[in-house]
Amino acid sequence: MPPAVKWSAWSTGWLWIWGTVLGQCLGYNSEQQRVEFLQPPGQNHLQASYVELRPSQGCSPGYYRENNGLYAGRCVPCNCNGHSNRCQDGSGICINCQHNTAGEHCEHCKEGHYGNAVHGPCRVCPCPHTNSFATGCVVNGGHVRCACKPGYTGTQCERCAPGYFGNPQKFGGSCQPCNCNSNGQLGICDPLTGDCINQEPKDSSPAEECDDCDSCVMTLLNDLATMSEELRLVKSQLQGLSASAGALEQIRHIETQAKDLRNQVLSYRSAISNHGSKMDGLQKELGNLNHEFEALQEKAQINSRKAQSLYNNVDRTIQNAKELDMKIKNVIRNVHILLRQISGTDREGNRLPLGDFSRELAESERMLREMRNRNFGKHLREAEAERREAQLLLNRIRSWLGSHQMESNGLVKNIRNALSDYEAKLHDLRAMLQEAAAQTKQATGLNHENEQALGAIKRQMKEINSLQSEFTKYLATADSSLLQTNNMLKLMDKSQKEYEKLAASLNGARQELSDKVRELSRSSIKAPLVGEAEKHAQSLQELAKQLEEIKRNASGDELVRRAVDAATAYENILNAIKAAEDAANKATSASESALKTVIKENLPKKAKTLSSASDELLNEAKITQKTLQQEINPALNSLQQTLNIVSIQKELIDTNLTTLRNDLRGIQRGDIDSMISEAKSKVKKANDITSEVLDGLNPIQTDVRRIKDTYGSTHSEDFSKALTDANNSVKRLTKNLPDLLSKIESINQQLLPLGNISDNVDRIRELIQQARDAANKVAVPMRFNGKSGVEVRLPSDLEDLKGYTSLSLFLQRPDSRENEGTEDMFVMYLGNKDVSKDYIGMAVVNGRLTCVYNLGDKEAELQVDQILTESETQEAVMDRVKFQRIYQFARLNYTKEATSSKPKAPQFHDMESGNLNTLLNLDPENVVFYVGGHPPDFKLPSRLRFPPYKGCIELDDLNENVLSLYNFKTTFNLNTTEVEPCRRRKEESDKNYFEGTGYARIPTQPNAPFPTFSQTIQTTVDRGLLFFAENQDHFISLNVEDGNLLVRYKLNSGQPKEKGIRDTINNGRDHTVLIKIGKAQKLMRINVNSQNIIIEGEIFDFNTYYLGGIPIAIRERFNISTPAFRGCMKNLKKTSGVVRLNDTVGVTKKCSEDWKLVRSASFSRGGQLSFTNLDSPLPDHFQASFGFQTFQPNGVLIHHQTRTSSLQVTLEDGHIELSTREDSNPIFKSPQTYIDGMLHYVSVISDNSGLRLLIDDQLLRRNKGLPKFPNAPQSLRLGGSYFEGCISNVFVHRLLESPEVLDFASKSTKREASLGGCSLNKPPFLMLFRDSARYNKAKTFNINQLIQDAPMTLPRSMEVRQEVKMCSPPPTAQASPGALQFGDSPTSHVLFKLPQELWNARSKFAVDMLTTSSRGLLFHSGTKNSFMALYLSKGHLVFALGAEGKKLRLKSRAKYNNGKWHTVVFGQDGGKGHLAVDGLTAQQGSLPGNSTINTIAQVYLGSPLLGKPKSLPQRSFVGCLKNFQLDFKPLDSPSSSFGVLPCMDGSLEKGIYFSQGGGHIVLANPVLLGPEFKLAFSIRPRSLTGILIHLGSQLGPHLSVYMEAGKVTASANIGAGGALTSVTPKQSLCDGQWHSVAVTIKHHILHLELDSDNSYTAGQFTFTPNSTHGPLYIGGVPANLKTLMIPVWRSFFGCLKNIQVNHIPVFVTKATEVQGSVHLNGCPDH
Description:
The protein is of the alpha+beta class.
């Protein structure tokens, strides 16, 4: 055998031997072990080519193969905490965890179990019993708190949740979903049986009256509801028992025992109460014993686990020894086999390679001898000894554990028995106490109900008595009105008779004159005279017809009826406050526009001119009459008739002018243009009549002269007599006619206020403003507990905050005992909901106040160096903070301990933001003002992200207007009625600040002989109303006009008069105004600064007067244009003493330090405001900023000048131009125009970077700046040339002064300019555009536009951004024309405000209805006390009327909820009601007691939010309505709607329908976007572009799924990385079929599936342990999220269903918010 072969065989053999030994030692089996070697060419199969050393497929039980480390492939023990003996190779993850455990290492309890899997067992959660219906639970002593699965509720999941039924407490029981809706959504059913429950209110009696429940009744109802559920559970358990005789006997026995037990409990109740303290002690001892027992049990368990571990180690050692012995035997056997193979003694002979094996054999024998000589006995004895010791230790531990366990078991048994006894006794005692408490509550509730019923009866009796007295007054008023009408009719009858006599005499005179003219005239002149006479006769006949018409109008019953009805016209419309306020705003703006138009066109002056011209014409006619009387000729009679016609026409002209004035005074609606046109036509008609009369007089006068020359004095006596009779008749008629017309005018004036609802609307708006002012006047600090906060209501004018913001507030921090060491707190945030935009915020950082503001470019921060004051909250000492921002500059005024008796000196801090922007742009739709805290879904900016405030905060003012925390929109974790406010020291002040927006109403004694009124005023404005009193059409108004005092008054029927004093009173100093009235002397004296104004005349009585302003109704009635007073008043006195201002609007009980600041001015054309000797500007930095409003295209805005340079900003054709003295051409010219009347801001900035012009923060730049300014005073001029408008918030950067807004009241001279406020006149041509967004903010819409669901045309700007592809709508999916769907919301409704011409006591409504609902409200109008309604009750239509406590119900005989269209006609005629369905009259009836329904102003289809009687259904019906009509006139333009969608024809299937109008759903429960996430849903689109689902917020992790031109895309942005994947379907999604979409995130892979197509991509997602849940948006996203980095912003259009998140269905019925046109109740069937 060659040596190489020998060496190879020897090496192979030993490798095989040692491989076998090593594998067995490492835990591998001996079979199939081989180590591969390369075989040289030419070797046969006898020469082994490899030796196997291959481990088996698995390690021994309890081990796994390790793939990492130095010894990769070895078996290491599993770490499964003793709950599994299998684990995965490589990872070590445990497989098939036992003992109710779960996790990678069986380290926690599986779902539905509790305990510590590492140190003890896991037990089933008792939720409620062994039936674990919980995902987990927490057991603390005897208290169990379960986290229930969907469908279960209760502390131990013992009940089914709403929408599920079953009995979880029964063995094998569970909860199943209710199946009560055909569309697959959850309904309401019996929680035990599953029977569907209809939650709509039952029919109630018409006479049923309900009172509000108090807290006691609500507690009783809740207890009864709980008892009802328990009784229902007992009932279900009893129903499952067999009613055998033995069971009944046992129940009787139990009942007897229960009665005995009850008697015993009642007898021992006093003893139990006496032993309460002992029981408490026992309970404490038992608690301690339980704790000790638990500690002992825990120690026992630990020792048991140690013993078990030791026992397992011993067993493992023995097993290892046995395995080692077996392995050694296997080695020996293998060696023998090898030896036999070497010696060739087997049948096959020697299979080893030939060669010299002597050396190898000797070596092998040596190794064998060495192995035999090794003695393992010692190790065996040591192992046996260790095993014996371990067995002994195990026996000792078992015996010790057994003895202790027996003792513990006995002790546990005793304790459990004792606890059971005590628990049973306590349970019985609790049951008895609950029963007694329930009976007590029931008795108290009955007593309370009786008291309420008695009080209600008393109130009704009182109301009936008051109504009776008021009705008596109304009857008396009506009787007097009827008496006046009768007197008027008698006078008219008398006047008619006199006129008939006059007409008869005139007819006779005309006939006689005609005869004489025929005889005396020649043929050439007869025809003209006869024609003239006939014309005059026709004129008289027309006048007779007019008088007859006046008589008929006066004698008709319409005025009388309206006079009677007007007595009851006032109705409580406070439930429609918001709508009424909008209507009042429209009426006010329209009235103001009309008034300005009337003043601009100077209609009163024209009327006066026309009246004076008519008077002159009458005088001229009378002179002519005298001349003709002296000259006797045949034509005098004709001339006299002409003069009479002129006189009558003059009276007609006066009447027309009077009517015109009254109409102008009564203008309060939107038909201003038509009334002005009518007034113009009347004036034109009067001018035409005057011209016609003058033209007619000239030929008559010529003919008279010619006839005189011809006939001389023929028949002079007959003509003179006829002329005298006619003249007397005309005089009598002229005398009586004005009295008659004045009475008619008086009646109309009395009817006008009652017939016009505008006065009531104005009063409602006044009450609203008073309520808001009252909230703002609550100057009390609010206490915050570190979890609470409020959202404060901001003023409506946010434009003023852009350039200038001044916010003042007070802060206090509780002392260290209450504060718990809190140093960092959030204070306030004023800004947009999107925190990346502009805002102002404050926070306390390290105990110091920090102010932060962001103007859109970057944040600026300022921190006070003083620690915020700490004090007790009972008597808080607060620091005052005043933050002022003027463009990009800010100043902070901080006064420490400002509310103490010795405040510290204020400290000032100035800063500049360094922003390129200068304005605080706040979106009115998304602006918020959070103080103290914020809602959980709002994420603060990083510099304000601190815990909520703990302490006291008080708001002071915002831009000179008082602001209070109690004028809030909403609160967060704060109940202001329960939390006691903070108290602080305040200085009393007798000053009252009038903000320039309201007034103070003060009562006074009307019959005082010498009324006296006194007040001291301070003001800086040019115009303002100080004092006003009125009675009917008389008034006295004391005003500030152009800085001087002016009195306007009207004491009689003449025109208003004026008197004034040329003494400036708007200099900010005290001026005392004293008004004294002497009624007997008919004298009024007004004294100001030792100067007097004396007014003579009869002074009228008044019982109320106004200070600082007047209500809108009075302002319009007397045509008062002077604005409200802005300034301070004090020392208010009247005749009876000191005045207390209780009834105020826009008045505050203190004057702030900034009230004298005047930041705005109004300029007439050519007006200027100049400032001289201002401090010199900075040499290297210049800035001038201002805001302006105008409609004029040209004029100077601002002119700045120094000794060597000048700069000017002007308007040229609407464009803004910047020019200087050095440049011949303008430096900048804006590309846009700014003459829209809106507030625009301009800033001119020059520094080292160049020259910048910012217009509303839009930048124009030039690299070259302005020349350096000298160190010399600068001057400034505002306005000039043709500029007409307003300028405000002017700022000029000065060298020696801190940045601050320019005060117009100091260092200024003015010309044609008014300081304070902005009075901007809209040009006449702009009034034609009624839809201007600035002047008409009321939004209306058309139903046809609402229900139109076809593809819409997009603006070009939107088309550029994205191309929207629409699917062709299927025929069955078209919307029913004009039909609306109600019922998606319980209060879905459409509001119609009826025009005044449609208001009628007799109304007939008609509407088409389609529904399958059995209950719900269809129509409602009126209030709780007077209403008209149509609703469904068990499928029947019910028409209800209610008035003055009386009710009428008309119910259809058939049911109409069959899903078909039905036409319903209903209405009322006075107190009669009628109902007809499909042309068949169902029923008619009348209200009891001749009651009537008040005039209808607005009606609702569906269910309104407020104002419904409790006897009506409170929810809207579910169905469709169309063709709504009033008196056969269609009503298709509602004022507003809520929760109404287009109605689809055909059946509906399960799903959500998103209309093309846009909308989305926000789920109430947020969703966690984790490392393993799956989202699945189905879609049937009608548009191929739109957002399907979005999860998350804009800033945090989010996932978006959207369609873009038919392609479905999933986009995820989580942590540091994002990913995007798309699927383009092979077939269009517009096929009308449902398509499934699934998005999965797993192992950093984003996977998208669309039907059978799929796509995926990898992303670097970072999931943090503290990842927060995000909101889930379906169908679209809100406006603040449309800035996401995705190419689609449109909402989804189509149907969507079967939404699942992580395999859990999502129910849209739990949506927290539904926006836009979204149909939750189903999709139209394709």
